[in-house]
Amino acid sequence: MSDFEVRENTAARRFELLVDGEVGALAVYHTRGDVLIILHTETAPEMQGKGLASELARRTLDLIRERGGKVAPSCPFFAKYIGEHPEYADLVSKG
Fold this sequence. Notes:
Layout: E1 4-9, E2 14-19, E3 22-32, E4 35-43, H1 52-67, E5 70-73, H2 76-84
Parallel strand pairs: 4-5
Antiparallel strand pairs: 1-2, 2-3, 3-4
């Protein structure tokens, strides 16, 4: 069974989903004040089709919520994920 962990790589401005210690998926962002603008999500080619991007989105949004932040989902995947999971709608920045 795989062990998942999400971490923020601030130097690269991305969140990384680690799968057994390796980056399986990532979400690139930039900031505007206290809002994280999610620009792009990608999954390692050898790990596609295993739900890693959804796991990354869920864990990243949970982390943003814990920090009291907001998100602007410019990335189509994150926008779709939030649309399908209304429990995260309150994290979307209005401005």
